[in-house]
Amino acid sequence: MWNSASDFFAMGGYAFYVWGSYGVVFLFFAMEIALVIRRKRTILQRIARIARMNRE
Amino acid sequence: MQIFTKAFWLQLSSPKVFYPVAGKLAPWFAIAAAILFVIGLYVGFFVAPPDYQQKDSYRIMFIHVPLAWMAMFVYIVMCGYAAIGLIWKTRLSTMMASALAPTGAMLTFLGLWTGALWGKPTWGAYWVWDARLTSFLILLFLYMGYMALENAIDDPQRASRASALLGLVGIVNIPIIYFSVKWWNTLHQGMSVSTSGISMEPSMKIAMFTLAFAVWFYTIAIALTRVRSIILERERHAAWVVDLAKAGGR
Questions:
Q1: Which residues in chain A have Cβ-Cβ distances shorter than 8 Å to B226?
Q2: Would the ipTM clear 0.85, i.e. be above it?
Q3: B215 in any annotated domain
């Protein structure tokens, strides 16, 4: 269907719209994944720190 | 078998029991989502032929439609959890509702974003105040209102009650979005998948449904991971949470 890699990336002249859609979707997904992982790490560290403070 | 007993399922509604279960399930949904994304994107970009009218711009549909479907579906699931929490006062249900809201809002935003980028080459405008687009924008505001209300009230029980009520009132918007293309004369095209007759090439349908399942499994993986943080945050005084954090967490 595509004659070359540049033909594929050109998307028949709609590169901005097609890659602008898929690019932003996967950028947001990547950011959300990073955020949920960080949130869990942060809360666990905070609870551990409070527990250490209470012991002292 | 253990899974056939009522006690097994009741147990799962306890945040303490659900925490490790969610942790075990999330990676499997993430892996399934990743595989489905690869297959769906491959079919969408390398198997499905260009559209005879819209050429290659129509490939936005493969992600736009799943995002829009899931944005509405997640809202219904979120309200279902919120309603269960409201009626039976089960803490885990309200936590699941809170875990779904940010992803639902993000899917709604991305549905609007991909729609705008598809609208420009197709209609000549990024945005029009059409019934479908306007009702979908209201869905974004409902998600944002739900999260804002929940965060604005300090007492978690009152917060989840208030946001659940807002969410449930807003559910009337879902049929409005869904049927808007039938009820009003809109610029937005009709339903891509109709029960009467086939309007799409099989490979196009495969790409769209595969990506719909990919987005669904992605949402489940994210919600399961986020609900674990919410459990830890709300149960931070419980002995098991403190012990878990001291042990380095897992």
A1: 36, 39
A2: yes
A3: yes
Range of the domain at B210: 22-246
- Give the CATH number, domain containing residue B60: 1.20.120
**Residue closest to B186 by CA, chosen among B118, B114, B133:** B133
pLDDT tens per residue, range B17-56: 899 999 999 999 999 999 999 999 999 999 988 887 788 8
Helix (H, G, I), strand (E, B) or coil at B150: helix
In a domain, B103, yes or no: yes
Chain B residues touching A48 at Cβ < 8 A: 245-246, 248-249
Taking only the tens place, the pLDDT of each residue in B140-164 is 999 999 999 999 998 888 898 999 9
Q: Which residues on neighbouring strands pair with residue B55, listed in sequence order?
A: B51
Cβ–Cβ < 8 Å for A35, B102 = no
Closest residue to A47, CB basis, from B118, B222, B245: B245
- Write down the pTM of the prediction: 0.91
